[in-house]
Amino acid sequence: MVKNTTGGTKTKGLARKHQRGGNEKLRLPDDSLEQVACVTKMLGNGMCEIYTNGNERLIGHIRNKFRGRQKRHNLITASSVVLIGLREWENPIKNCDILSIYTDSQISQLKNMPNIPMDNITRLQNELSHIGNSTSTGDFDFTNNIEEEEEEEVPQTTFKKTESFTLGNMEKVDIDDI
Asked: Predicted confidence band at 162 (pLDDT cuts at 50, 70, 90)?
C-alpha cells in the first residue's frame, strides 16, 4: 500500500490495487497469422469492423481482456490501431481476435519499423479521424449565377397605400389597458 504523505482527498486518485503497470512492452506480430490492422466501425455485442493493410474486411471479436475494469486502459474506438490474430481453422477468413491495442506513441514506433507495412492503416486512421471535423453540404451546389433563359422580366409597379389612424374622442391611452 502506498504511504499517505500528503493527507486529505488528493492522496490517491484511483485505488492502487486495480491499476496496471504503466510501461508495457511493444507487442509485435510474431506469427504469419498476427497482423496490424485498423478498427473502422464498432458493431456492438463485442464485435467491430477491422480492415487490414491488404484492405481485407474482417469482423474483430473483442475478448474479455478488454472489458470490465481493464476497459479504461485499453479502450477500443473507431480509428484505433490494433494487433489481430487470424483464425486458422476458418477457410475463407472472416473473423479475427483482438490481441493488443496500440497507443499513439506505439503507433509512431510501428511506422518507423520497415518490416511492418502500415500504409493503408495510417490512411484509414487519418480518414476516420477527419470524419467528425468535416463540414459537407451534401449533394447540392449553391451558386449565385442566374441563367438568363429562365429569367422573365416582370414590370415593376409601385403602389402607394396610406392608412390613417385617429383616436377619436379619447384623450389619453393607457398602455396597461391595451
From this structure: confident
DSSP states along 66-121: GSGGGGGTS---TT-EEEEEE-TT-SS--EEEEEEE--HHHHHHHHT-TTS--HHH
CA 167 to chain CA centroid, Å, is 65
Q: What is the pLDDT of residues 77-132, one digit of tens each?
A: 888 999 999 999 988 899 999 999 998 889 999 999 888 888 888 888 888 877 65
Q: Is the separation of the CB atoms in 111 and 118 below 8 Å?
A: yes
- Which segments of the chain are extended strands (E)? 34-44, 47-52, 57-61, 81-86, 95-101
For the chain, the structural domain boundaries read 29-130
Q: Which CATH architecture has domain 29-130?
A: Beta Barrel (2.40)
d(CA 63, CA 40): 18
Which among 90, 96, 92, 84 is positioned nearest to 27, based on CA atoms? 84
For the entire predicted model, the pTM comes to: 0.61
